[in-house]
Design a protein that fits this description.
Helix 5 packs across helix 6 and helix 7 runs antiparallel to helix 8. By secondary structure, the protein is α/β, with parallel strands linked by helices. It has a six-stranded parallel sheet with strand order 1-4-3-2-5-6, with helices on both faces. A six-stranded antiparallel barrel has the order 7-8-11-10-9-12. It contains ten helices and twelve strands. The protein has two domains: about 150 residues, HUPs (Rossmann fold, 3-Layer(aba) Sandwich); about 130 residues, Beta Barrel (Elongation Factor Tu (Ef-tu), domain 3), CATH 2.40.30.30. The two termini are about 30 Å apart.
């Protein structure tokens, strides 16, 4: 899969293509439906499928300080898109100048002059251009002038438990913030992931017999609510069952919020300095302060046992 940053990276001889545009943070099941349709249409027409996305998130430029928590890095999004069959990802630097492009200018500069769109596939709520003035109806109108078609794909909806709410990155962020990683997994189609470099912490876990990988997470990362979770710690491509703690470590009166993962049944791991991934499968309990270290250790052992069982059930299922 080709990856371009900025319009100048697109090859001069680039031909017709099927295009879809959006932030696509998380590449959740609604996104997968849209991107999957774009790829299917591209295969039918014998042309490449291109995803256009933005960096930084447009809201950070339009309303500084409002950057939403991010569900996936651009690298992770590109990997997920490649798995869906996308041929190229164009990351457009979203600047103040770019934000002032009218919807018509955006279509001409990006879709017509550079990507030579033959089909554009979007969700029903797609907005673009200065002040988000463009919508799918306007996009379709311009298609009659510039020789491209527009397909609008409805998003899947969650079941009764979600109140019939359409899949969206906003929904996933809310579920993650609430600690409902099971609900987030339903919308994403996979566990929510947090990435970062392993740094040295207070090393209390090692002293207690449960050495943890302490992640220095990336800016704006969507981190689940404080609590203990079951999931996986992936390092060097190896996914290991893990018990994960998110919070300030109230047992030791901590103040800094951290993400720490204990690789279950693994001894002698040295992960310092490595970029690792933590995937959240299920919420186990909230953060607590125990009356004694012995009580803490007893609960930690129970957490690890339950985390091991849940991961085994999931992997076995």
């Amino acid at each position: 899969m080709q990856r371009w940053r900025g319009l100048e990276d697109i090859p001069e001889d680039w031909g017709r293509s099927v295009v879809t545009i959006g932030s696509y943070d998380g590449v959740h099941r609604g996104h997968q439906l849209i991107i999957g349709r774009a790829v299917a249409r591209a295969r039918e027409l014998g042309v490449p499928a291109v995803v256009v996305t933005f960096d930084p998130h447009p809201s950070e430029v339009v309303r500084p300080g409002s950057h939403p928590p991010l569900l996936a890095t651009h690298q992770r999004r590109a990997e997920l898109m490649a798995e869906l069959g996308v041929d190229a990802v164009l990351v457009l630097p979203f600047t103040a100048e770019f934000s002032r492009l009218s919807p018509g200018d955006f279509v001409v500069k990006v879709l017509v002059d550079k990507l030579h769109a033959r089909v554009v596939v979007e969700g029903p709520n797609f907005r673009f251009g200065h002040r988000a003035a463009g919508n799918v109806e306007f996009l379709r109108e311009l298609g009659t002038t510039y020789d491209y078609q527009v397909e609008v794909i409805d998003l899947y909806e969650r079941g009764e438990a979600g109140g019939g709410e359409a899949f969206s990155s906003t929904l996933v962020r809310r579920l993650v913030a609430d600690g409902d990683v099971t609900g987030a997994m339903e919308v994403l189609g996979r566990p929510h992931r947090v990435e970062g470099v392993v740094v040295r912490g207070a090393q209390r876990g090692r002293e207690l017999g449960f050495p943890t990988a302490n992640l220095e997470t990336l800016p704006h990362t969507a981190i689940p609510a404080d609590g203990v979770y079951a999931g996986w710690l992936t390092a060097g491509g190896e996914a290991m069952p893990a018990a994960i703690s998110v919070g300030t470590n109230p047992q030791f009166d901590g103040t800094e919020r951290t993400v720490e993962a204990y690789a279950i049944d693994r001894v002698g791991l040295d992960l310092y300095g490595l970029h690792v991934q933590v995937d959240f499968l299920a919420y186990l309990r909230g953060q607590e302060k125990f009356d004694s270290i012995e009580a803490l250790l007893e609960r930690m052992a129970a957490d690890v046992k339950r985390a091991r069982e849940l991961v085994e059930e999931h992997d076995g299922g």
